[in-house]
Amino acid sequence: MNPIVTFIKAKRKQLKLTQVDVAFKSGVGLRFIRELEQGKTTVRLDKVNQVLYLFGKQVGITDMDRPEEDEL
What we know:
By secondary structure, this protein is mainly α.
């Protein structure tokens, strides 16, 4: 599962928040929260950041293992 989804779901449960609570507190729709937690692969990044902001986080750039640029 996507690490962002795993984080949001775990943090929500840790804080004893419902999906309705998270939707209301972050300013996104309940449908968005449900789809996000179900692993929908196409979601709006700005809305993901709205939810993550509730937990003091944001989406950022991280390094990953991949071939060198000249090998592409």
